[in-house]
């Protein structure tokens, strides 16, 4: 018999994504569902299932409405921010988050239905990170 994990104890790692580039955060980080703010925990993660993220991304692709982008931000920004902090200092991590969601908004038409929503979000975050920190060689720690 499977019991449901309380929402505040769920981990992004508990929901394996079909995307090899999905943002998987270390289990030792606290998990919440709130978006990052200036007064919040510096690494507020998210527990959004890939199915939920994919559904929101699909609606964004079709409607491109501000409320849909806000839903996507609420679902995914804590994990994107935590991931960015793993690869950049806080000011740059914040810039990566801003540019990622700007790119998602302007590139909503590039989403292909059927592709993992998390994969689409993380691919944009990775592109933004590489824009600021291009890989310099095979030993570069940037993913």
Description of the molecule:
- By secondary structure, this protein is an all-alpha fold.
- The protein has a domain of 84 residues: Rna Polymerase Sigma Factor, Chain: A (Orthogonal Bundle), CATH 1.10.1740.
- Helices cover 48% and strands 0% of the residues.
- The protein is built from four helices and no strands.
- Helix 2 packs antiparallel against helix 3 and helix 3 packs across helix 4.
- The chain is globular, with a radius of gyration of 15 Å.
- 34% of the residues are buried.
Write out key terms for the chains shown.
4 helices, disordered N terminus, mainly alpha, 48% helix, globular, 143 residues, Rna Polymerase Sigma Factor, Chain: A
Short description:
This protein has 143 residues and is mainly alpha-helical. It is built from four helices and no strands.
Uncertain segments:
1-18, 20-46
Largest sheet: none
Pairing-aware structural class of the strands and helices? mainly alpha
What CATH first level of the domain at 50-133 would be assigned? Mainly Alpha
Shape: globular
Region (Disordered): 1-48
Biased composition (Basic and acidic residues): 1-14
Biased composition (Polar residues): 31-40
Produce the secondary structure layout.
Elements: H1 50-63, H2 66-87, H3 90-106, H4 117-132
Helix pairs in contact: 1-2, 2-3, 2-4, 3-4
């Amino acid at each position: 018999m499977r019991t449901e994990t309380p929402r505040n104890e769920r981990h992004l790692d508990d929901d394996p994504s079909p995307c090899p580039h999905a943002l998987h955060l270390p289990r030792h980080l606290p998990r919440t569902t709130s978006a990052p703010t200036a007064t919040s925990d510096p690494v507020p993660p998210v527990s959004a299932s890939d199915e939920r993220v994919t559904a929101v991304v699909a609606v964004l692709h079709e409607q491109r409405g501000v409320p849909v982008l806000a839903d996507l931000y609420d679902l995914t920004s804590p994990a994107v921010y935590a991931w960015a902090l793993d690869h950049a200092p806080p000011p740059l991590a914040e810039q990566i988050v801003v540019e990622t969601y700007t790119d998602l908004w302007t590139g909503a038409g590039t989403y292909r239905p059927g592709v993992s929503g998390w994969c689409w979000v993380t691919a944009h975050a990775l592109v933004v990170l590489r824009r600021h920190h291009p890989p310099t060689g095979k030993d570069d720690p940037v993913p």
